[in-house]
Write a structure and sequence with these properties.
single chain, alpha/beta, Diaminopimelate Epimerase, Chain A, domain 1, 2 domains, six-stranded mixed beta sheet, five-stranded parallel beta sheet, 10 helices
């Protein structure tokens, strides 16, 4: 059995763990959206939490943008399980694999559901950071998946997880302090819509913290643009496939505010969910994309724009 799953979030890694519970000998490829064109000729039994690849037998996913594309291209088959109303891909996969009666599997799916719908617990926070630190390391992601298989919801008791968290924690705390300062100053100026342009020195693992903190304190929409090209001192594989030819934009919307992040992301060439979406933008097209972001947000209120360019030492 050969499977592809999302490499950079809890839903994808929990899905890998479910596959291993059912088939310990399964070959699993952990992919990002950028990897999809590279596996056009690979035959997968199942592709999970990702757009359907050319030779995938079954696609299991919950992204509306993927569902609409499959329907538009007449590529959605009876074997595919693509439900935009599902809280996670793992919640669909557990049924496909017939693991609904497995208590450990159910607990892992609960974690994936919380994480993929914007929920937060200490355990989810730590797991998410460790996964993102190793997004491009196949062996480490497989290690994490096996830890979930063995430990289930008690994964924080694993010694490797403990040590890895202690290693990356200082870097994350630095990012949190910078984030709090940005948010504090922005909201003091009455800015509920914010674009943060990262040029250098901001811990990549803390991008989601910046967005979460802004919304928690009363912000409505925040877009973080990652234009950093330097190596990451703590998570070097995060920039393994980076290139100055592209930048990334991550859009997050407060749960109580009516703004469609997915539609904006699609205008930028990306996609995702209504409250959380993203896009990969050509550097040559950056200023046009920025003007689109500013225009969209300015229709809702005053927009703040912050550039971050700081020393990257821990």
């Amino acid at each position: 059995m050969r499977v592809a799953t999302h490499a950079s979030d809890i839903d994808g890694i929990v899905s890998a763990a479910l596959v291993l519970m059912k088939n310990p000998n399964a070959k699993i490829d952990f992919l990002t959206l950028r990897d999809i064109p590279l596996v056009r000729d690979v035959e997968y039994d199942v592709v999970i939490d990702l757009p359907k690849t050319k030779r995938a037998k079954v696609n299991i996913d919950h992204h509306l943008s993927n569902y609409e594309k499959l329907v538009r291209n007449n590529a959605l088959t009876e074997r595919d399980i693509v439900d935009p109303k599902a809280p996670s891909a793992a919640s669909l996969l557990i049924k496909y694999l017939g693991l609904e009666d497995d208590k450990k599997a159910r607990k892992l799916v609960e974690i994936a559901n919380i994480a993929d719908t914007g929920g937060y617990t200490k355990e989810i926070y730590i797991l998410d950071k460790i996964i993102k630190c190793h997004t491009h390391d196949q062996s480490i992601l497989m290690k994490i998946a096996w830890i979930l298989v063995e430990k289930g919801e008690k994964f924080l008791k694993d010694e490797w997880i403990k040590s890895e968290w202690q290693r990356i924690r200082p870097w994350i705390e630095k990012g949190r302090k910078i984030s709090e300062e940005i948010v504090k100053k922005s909201l003091k100026m009455g800015l509920k819509f914010l674009i943060v342009d990262l040029l250098k020195g901001f811990p990549r693992l803390s991008i989601s913290d910046l967005q979460w903190f802004f919304m928690r304190k009363g912000g409505k929409v925040i877009i973080v643009i990652n234009r950093m090209t330097e190596s990451d001192p703590v998570c070097p594989t995060l920039v393994k496939n980076s290139t100055p030819n592209y930048v990334r934009a991550s859009i997050r919307v407060a749960s109580n505010y009516d703004f469609d992040a997915r539609r904006l992301a699609e205008k930028l060439g990306g996609g995702g969910h209504i409250k959380a979406s993203g896009a990969r933008i050509s550097s040559d097209d950056y200023y046009r994309a920025l003007s689109i972001m500013l225009k969209e947000l300015s229709e809702h209120g005053y927009v703040g724009y912050v550039k971050v360019n700081i020393n990257s030492d821990i």
